[in-house]
Amino acid sequence: MSAAPRVKKIAAIGRLAVATLVTAAAGTADAASSSFRLSDPSETALEAVVGRRADGGFVSAWRGFAGAITARRFLADGTPAGAPLLLKPSDGRSATSLRIAVNRRGDFVVTWEGSDENGSEGVNARSFRPDGQLVASVRAAEFRNESSTGSDVAIDDDGDFVIAWRGVRQIAIPILIPYGAIELGSSSVKAQRFTSAGTPIGRVATIATSITDPAPVIGVFEQSAPAVASDGAGNAVVVWGTRDGIGPNAVFARRLSPRGIPQGLAFRVDTRSDAGAYDPDVDMTEDGSSMVVVWQQSHSVGGGGFSGYDVLARRYDSRDRAGPVVAAGDLVLIGGRVSVDMNLAGQAVIAWPATEADFCCLPPVVAMQRLDARGARVGGNQRVSTDYADSAAAAIDDDGSAVVVWSIRSVSPPAVLASLLPLP
User: Rounded to whole angstroms, what are the CA distances from 62 to 8, 9, 12, 356?
Assistant: First the structure.
């Protein structure tokens, strides 16, 4: 989101590192720009998430060596504001699904999934004041007798935040059959609201649930990793992928009240019954007047021997009235994540690591697409960087200027870079 409204997740530019000339790929807009290193040149940085304050300042967090997680505040011009904040040391314990949420005045929350010193898995959260002072360190969700493969966080203007995650629980011993095994279990998307001090608000809400993995008898039933966004008043929306038997994956959404109570029924976002929809993301305007959901849609290439992924987007108003599905881009890197960010006017930017052809092993680049306030494409895809990108994220400010951040492993040590793209 923009500098003026609350921002769920955005990218910043730093003042370290070398510039990289960006060339435009065939059929894309010219996107020549410079990139800057966000991570310190001496440290390993494999992934980054970033948020922006109302005054244009930034907060960035990244995952480093042996599970370390570091956050740092930046001024609007990219100058570091204060020393780095070590949220998790290099202790060898896992750290996945790194996310950040920042509100207008600069309160921020960083979350990740990982084990504690006793080996228990869960979602960890650290909340901070605008000056970087730690407010709370909490175990936001404990995976007792279950596992998780994805979580996300969003924050409101008061600093209260909401975390969504996927939980999988085995409820029966696998039964061997001639064609495989029946592994009966449950798969759920859950959410929990917290005060800025980390105190739970209400109970854990179950957004969606299903019986999992009775395949190959009647097909696969499961929920996949969710994403969450919030407006300034704490009204939230959760999106996730689901599979309901023998059909392809689909994307659903459901609203949450500021008390964390599910509102209404879940509704389907994608529209095709002949292609799978995966790994959604969502963002919402500060006033809650609109939201944009993005996801990856499979398509067959190479005579049907390989399935690539397109980037699709759909805008909704505050009453969940949907606009048309928009083809935002294509050629998503296998395993890559598509991200979206909106500004107060409802403009959006989408970023993803993309391949330059329908082939899994070509070096990925960073791609970006703009949407206007109606949810329609503005121009074509931009190739923001030709670096070997493992991940990518983007954000937009009130003036329409976009910032894109990505991680690369083609340098030693691996680093996180960012680029600023003004409104064309």
Answer: 16, 13, 12, 27
